[in-house]
Specification:
This protein is α+β, with helices and mostly antiparallel strands and about 300 residues long. Helices cover about 35% and strands about 20% of the residues. The protein starts with a helix and ends in a 10-residue tail after the last helix.
């Protein structure tokens, strides 16, 4: 049997063993997997990237490889994984069974992630699913023995479903064990601000997730050396260009819920970040899913 044939057979066998999880419609909280917030798993560039990510830090290592046809999965493609994580956690907390085999509609994913629903958006969603399926990851993270290699794709497979008249019924996708197990672990998931979807830059999105993970609600804030951030981002741009873009993000102060500053000492730059104070009225209104009051004159 050819490799493609064996892959199809394996996917069919996997599908037969999984219960189908149908997505929950409506407004649900946005969740993120902490491992994806901290480590370089995605391309931050809008242009196609085929150069692998080869990251080593202490005992942690990550290798991400792309195929030339599709390119590496991007941080915008990862919005689909945010949708999946949010669905799984919402169902688990409501006592509903969850599964790696998920059924939904393109419309649900697009509206949840703040995208339009025109034909171009549907085409871009299909391309994102292709990149997530064709990008391969190998990592030591969450492996009992650090040298053990766990290799997977962000999506094992996906397909569009149609009725007998050829009308679209939606899409189905299968998540990998590594991602699914991390999402089910309550200690490994954080709620993030829905304004995340309005961040347009790849570096900006990556930085928000890192800040949200490390900054949390610590009133004293947190800081990282620029060189450390450059390494953890996995970007191909030189450190000087990376620092230039980081300074621009600090000037814009565009990360929801956090304030940023640059500290300089001994010729080195550090990014400092701290949570903004939370207005009690705004917090109460968010809990009941209402928009905060605009207090501007």
């Amino acid at each position: 049997m050819s490799h493609a044939g064996s892959s199809r057979a394996a996917a069919f066998g996997e599908r037969a063993q999984l219960e189908l999880f149908r997505s929950i419609p409506g407004d649900i909280a946005l969740r993120d997997a902490q491992d994806l917030m901290v480590w370089p798993f995605f391309s931050l560039a809008k242009s196609k990237r085929v150069t692998p990510i080869d990251f080593r830090m202490g005992e942690t290592w990550i290798s991400v490889e792309a195929v030339p046809e599709h390119g590496m999965a991007t941080i915008w493609d990862a919005d689909i994984l945010l949708w999946a994580a949010s669905q799984i956690v919402e169902a688990r907390d409501a006592g509903r069974p969850t599964s790696r085999l998920m059924a939904t509609t393109p419309y649900e994913i697009l509206t949840f992630t703040g995208r339009g629903t025109g034909r171009d958006n549907y085409d871009r969603l299909r391309a994102a699913l292709d990149r997530l399926q064709s990008t391969t990851v190998a990592t030591s993270i969450r492996q009992q023995h650090q040298r053990r290699r766990h290799r997977f794709s962000w999506i094992n497979e996906w397909q569009e479903r149609f009725d007998v008249q050829g009308r679209p019924l939606g899409i189905e996708l299968i998540l990998p064990d590594w991602f699914y197990a991390g999402v089910l672990d309550r200690a490994l998931v954080l709620t993030i601000d829905r304004q995340y979807f309005s961040l347009t830059g790849g570096l900006e999105r990556w930085l928000y997730r890192l800040v949200r993970k490390h900054g949390g609600r610590q009133p004293g804030g947190w800081s990282f050396d620029f060189a450390h951030l450059h390494l953890k981002s996995g970007v191909l741009s030189p450190r000087k260009r990376f620092a230039f873009e980081l300074r621009a993000i600090v000037r814009r102060q565009s990360l929801p819920g956090y304030t940023l500053a640059i500290e300089r000492a001994f010729g080195r730059e550090r990014l400092y970040f701290a949570p903004l104070p939370v207005d009690p009225l705004d917090a109460a209104m968010r809990r009941v899913r209402l928009k905060p009051v605009d207090k501007r004159p």
